[in-house]
């Protein structure tokens, strides 16, 4: 006797083949809108202290951005501040890589023996979570209190949380791989370290490079923010220009930051294309 195939309802069939069920997106949209509305009503908007003349200040600021100060003195300070911002970002990201790479491998459990793999992942991810739980600006305040207004404060403030972020992403990338190529390496006699070096890393290298460059862009912005706690760089110059109400200088320093990020993005695109080949 031939058994008839079981016919699943349309909703169940779509769920099994990975397609969203009808109305699923609509329900999610409604939930998100309700959540947004609920959070908006939880804010006490009455505590706001509006600034009189704020529109005039905004017009002046926009005018300064459109017509930046291009005097030799301002441009010279912009170049010096940009260089300091780059130095902090590169040093901070280097520290982040030194922390994030080994901790990311540890958190992935890729080279841990089977009997301690779970413990390696738990400990590694716990350390990474602790590192990235505190924002870099808070780290900056803490290190300024500990070591003073020193470049070390800026480098540590960027390196520690970014190390936690990079390590977490690296661990996920090293884990989210197809098993077939790794199994072939193991059958060929490769150990855990060889499988990492010749299997996991090459397969994830484009994503690793792309995300590292993205974090470098973030490090440049974070390095600029360090100036607002007195550590120099573009943020420090912007803060001084705002205090002096010199919005044209603000426009110059903002333009320098935008050009810096654009240059890094162009460099990142070239490197990613080379890695992808």
Structure notes:
The protein has 277 residues and is mainly alpha-helical. The protein is built from eleven helices and no strands. Helix 3 packs across helix 11 (247-276) and helix 4 (72-108) packs across helix 10. The protein is globular and about 70 Å long. The chain starts with 9 loop residues before the first helix and ends with a helix. The model is unreliable at 5-18 (pLDDT under 50).
Radius of gyration: 25 Å
> What is the beta-strand fraction?
under 5%
Number of E-type strands: 0
Low-confidence parts, pLDDT < 50 over ≥5 residues? 5-18
- What is the helix tally? 11
The class by helix and strand makeup works out as: mainly alpha
Q: How do the strands and helices of this protein lay out in sequence?
A:
Elements: H1 10-16, H2 24-42, H3 54-66, H4 72-108, H5 117-132, H6 136-147, H7 151-175, H8 179-187, H9 192-225, H10 234-243, H11 247-276
Q: What attributes characterize this protein structure?
A:
277 residues, mainly alpha
Quick overview of this protein structure:
The protein has 277 residues and is an all-alpha fold. Helix content is 77%, strand content 0%. Residues 5-18 have low confidence and may be disordered.
């Amino acid at each position: 006797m031939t058994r008839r195939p079981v016919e699943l309802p349309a909703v169940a069939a779509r769920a099994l083949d990975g397609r969203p069920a009808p109305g699923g997106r609509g329900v999610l949209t409604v939930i998100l809108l309700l959540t947004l509305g609920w959070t908006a009503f939880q804010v006490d908007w009455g505590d706001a202290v509006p600034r009189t003349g704020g529109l005039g200040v905004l017009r002046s600021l926009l005018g300064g951005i459109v017509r930046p100060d291009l005097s030799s003195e301002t441009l010279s300070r912009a170049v010096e501040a940009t260089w300091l911002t780059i130095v902090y970002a590169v040093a901070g990201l280097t520290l982040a890589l030194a922390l994030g790479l080994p901790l990311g491998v540890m958190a992935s459990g890729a080279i841990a023996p089977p009997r301690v793999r779970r413990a390696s992942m738990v400990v590694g991810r716990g350390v990474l979570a602790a590192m990235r739980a505190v924002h870099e600006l808070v780290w900056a305040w803490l290190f300024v209190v500990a070591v003073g207004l020193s470049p070390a404060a800026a480098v540590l403030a960027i390196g520690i949380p970014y190390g936690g972020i990079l390590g977490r992403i690296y661990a996920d990338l090293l884990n989210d791989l197809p098993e077939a190529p790794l199994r072939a390496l193991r059958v060929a006699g490769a150990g855990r370290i060889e499988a990492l070096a010749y299997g996991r890393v090459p397969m994830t290298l484009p994503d690793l490079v792309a995300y590292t460059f993205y974090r470098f862009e973030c490090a440049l912005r974070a390095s600029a923010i360090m100036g607002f706690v007195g550590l120099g760089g573009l943020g420090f110059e912007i803060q001084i220009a705002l205090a002096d109400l010199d919005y044209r200088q603000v426009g110059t320093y903002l333009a320098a930051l935008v050009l810096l990020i654009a240059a890094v993005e162009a460099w990142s695109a070239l490197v990613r294309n080379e890695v992808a080949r």
